Amino acid sequence: MSERLQKVMAHAGVASRRKAEKLIVEGHVKVNGKVVKELGTKVTESDEVEVDEVPISKEVPVYYLLYKPRGVITAVTDDKHRKTVIDLLSEVTERIYPVGRLDYDTSGLLLLTNDGDLDNHLTHPKYEVDKTYVAKVKGTITNDDMKRLRTGIHIDGRKTASAKATVIRNNNNSTIVSLTIHEGRNHQVKKMFLALGHPVEKLSRQSYGFLNLDGLQPGDYRRLKPHEVEELKKMSQDRKR
């Protein structure tokens, strides 16, 4: 039975399907010793697939939850030699990668896996996964600001989807706000508050779907339980538009 090359790569834990397609187009992949750049290429179990000269092998899927600290890059490697989230999971032997990303100066819940299909489901725009952030923003958030957060704000030329927003605490010169969104636009939370005139001073992702950071400190991680993995898979399918 033959399958598309990018799907085989995703199942092997090399990268998500979309990232695998990029690797193929850029010439990083060989099939039976020959570079392949065609996305329609199909392979069978007897074909030898290499990525950057390293043969791929089908790995058992693994799933981890990390409490990412601030000052860590959400990447597998970094050309500036900064600490990455993979460095924090140094005892994990499988080749894993982060699901989505958190900014360098943002802390909080991050998933890592070698399951390319699940990564694709959780990060693709057509799926909706609630993500709750706690932001410390400059200035005092008004009732009008809260209404705009809940109904949508125009950033990058289009309006954000409706969100859940709650003021946790008002300080003298700042406000602590809980914001739940299901989109995954680049720097979305920061841009939403900036559009209101309240730049983010500190940001943390507290939950991802039903998962949270209970019992973890920054830098801690744990393996997801089987029922959590199944719930994630079910959630990503149920939320499909």
How many domains make up the coordinates? 3
Unreliable segments of 5+ consecutive residues: none
Note the main sheet. 9 strands, mixed
Beta percentage is: 25-35%
Helix tally equals: 7
Protein name: Pseudouridine synthase
Domain RNA-binding S4: 3-66
Keywords: Isomerase, Lyase, RNA-binding
EC number: 5.4.99.-
Please outline the helices and strands.
Blueprint: E1 3-4, H1 5-11, H2 17-25, E2 29-31, E3 34-35, E4 42-43, E5 49-51, E6 54-55, E7 63-68, H3 85-88, E8 97-98, E9 106-113, H4 116-123, E10 131-138, H5 143-151, E11 154-155, E12 158-159, E13 164-170, E14 174-181, H6 188-195, E15 200-208, E16 211-212, E17 221-223, H7 226-238
Parallel strand pairs: 9-15
Antiparallel strand pairs: 1-4, 2-3, 2-5, 5-6, 7-9, 7-17, 8-9, 10-14, 10-15, 11-12, 13-14, 15-16
Helix pairs in contact: 1-2
Describe the structure.
Strands 7, 8, 9, 10, 13, 14, 15, 16 and 17 form a nine-stranded mixed β-sheet that branches. The protein has a four-stranded antiparallel β-sheet with strand order 3-2-5-6. A two-stranded antiparallel sheet has the order 1-4. It is of the alpha+beta class. It folds into three domains: 53 residues, Roll (Structural Genomics Hypothetical 15.5 Kd Protein In mrcA-pckA Intergenic Region, Chain A); 89 residues, Pseudouridine synthase I, catalytic domain, N-terminal subdomain (Alpha-Beta Plaits, 2-Layer Sandwich), CATH 3.30.70; 78 residues, Alpha-Beta Plaits. It starts with a strand and ends with a helix. It is an enzyme of class 5 (isomerase). Belongs to the pseudouridine synthase RsuA family. One of its GO terms (molecular function) is RNA binding. Its EC number is 5.4.99.-.
